Amino acid sequence: MKPEHARDAKQKSAHREVDVFTAHLAILDFIDYQMPQLRSVTDIKAALVIWRKTHGWGRICEKIGATELAQRAGIDKDVLKDRIAPLCMRLGIDREKQTAESKCGNAMNLRTRYRWPINDRVRRSLDKQTINGMGTIQPPGWGGLDPQGGASSPPTQSSTSSEFCTLQSRTSDYQPTNRTNRDSHAGYRQDATDKPPENQTQKPNPSSSEGRRQFTPEEWEWMSGALNSYGQRRTMRQHMQESAPPEIVQKCLEAADGTPLHDIGDLLRHRCLRGCEPGTSKGPRGWGWFPTVIANAVRDWREQEAAAKDPSRKKHWSEYDVHADSEMERASSAFDTLADLEATA
Q1: 44, 147, 311, 324 - which has most CB atoms within 10 Å?
Q2: Within 13 Å, how many C-alpha atoms sit on residue 203's CB side?
Q3: How far apart are CA 206 and CA 201, in angstroms?
């Protein structure tokens, strides 16, 4: 069989009834609004299989047999037979049984036709994209055919970064990240064509190595790996959609100020296990969280060590000068002493 050409495959994918971005919004809408209402694991598995066979393949409707649906979902066929009808009614899925007549004249059941329409919430989200000038976002066809003819040029780094950030901000399920220019690679460089205003002096480049402390490649690699892999449910690299910027790694190493790296690792591990997950209220929502936490911890450790080595530090409570209080002495004199108790015994 002759292999299918890559251009033919792209043309076929372009004829999807449900484009990739709409299918992505549909599954997010199902997870956010409909799945929490399903109390049965059987219902959730069956719904995901139906979505995979319809929107997952770019279709609104698809014929699925009861045996295939049960096998793909990993559930019992008899249990599914009793739950599929109310499930489709709750999710707004049109379910139509298909029958045919055999040669003997008997009725024969065919695969059921499932139609999962795009709901109003997803359509409103798509309308917002169109109003804001984005339209429906398609994967970039690098090297493909341009609608006006000819080959399209590869997108620039700035264009792909802006499209990704816009898409991420509109479709993310997590809390917004507290990202600023100082936490991002893009915040350290200025384009050669961008000139500062006449009444504003140009600030020095913060990423310059002049006057900065130098560290070994092993220290850089360790700190960068610790920042990127921070987190249990998801890592900091996944939360920020980028690796730790070099400026943040430099600041973390400077904040450590010679502290052994295994102590810094224990600090970050302790914070992570105590609920400081990426994106949470107590955890990091930007890269700038790490230098601050490390600097505060190192300062507290230094203060504790200095207090322990202080020669004037008291070692016993009796060494403290406690001034006599007449009110306290009069109150305590009302109590019986040990000698009084022995005398009355």
Answers
A1: 44
A2: 7
A3: 15
- Domain residue spans of the chain: 13-131, 217-308
Q: Are 18 and 59 a contacting pair, CB within 8 Å? A: yes
Q: 13-131 sits in which CATH class? A: mainly alpha
**Alpha-carbon span 227 to 265, nearest angstrom:** 10
Write the burial class of residue 25 (CB in 10 Å: 0-12 exposed, 13-18 middle, 19+ buried). buried
pTM of the shown model? 0.38
The per-residue pLDDT string of the chain (345 residues; one tens digit each, 9 = 90 and over) reads 445 454 554 555 556 888 888 989 899 999 999 999 898 899 999 999 999 999 999 999 999 999 999 999 999 988 888 899 999 999 999 999 888 888 888 888 889 999 999 999 998 888 877 665 544 444 443 334 443 344 444 444 444 444 444 444 444 444 555 555 444 444 444 444 445 555 554 444 444 455 678 899 999 999 999 999 999 888 999 989 899 999 999 999 999 988 999 899 999 999 999 889 998 988 999 999 999 999 999 999 998 888 888 877 777 767 777 777 777 777 777 776 777 777 776
Relative to beta strand 112-115, strand 94-96 is antiparallel
- The span from the CA of 150 to the CA of 284, in Å, is 46
Q: Do residues 184 and 207 make contact, with C-beta atoms less than 8 angstroms apart?
A: no
What Cα–Cα distance (Å) separates residue 37 from each residue in 48, 55, 125, 174, 227? 14, 21, 21, 20, 37
Residue 252 to residue 3: CA distance in whole angstroms: 53
The tokens of 45 are what? 């598995």
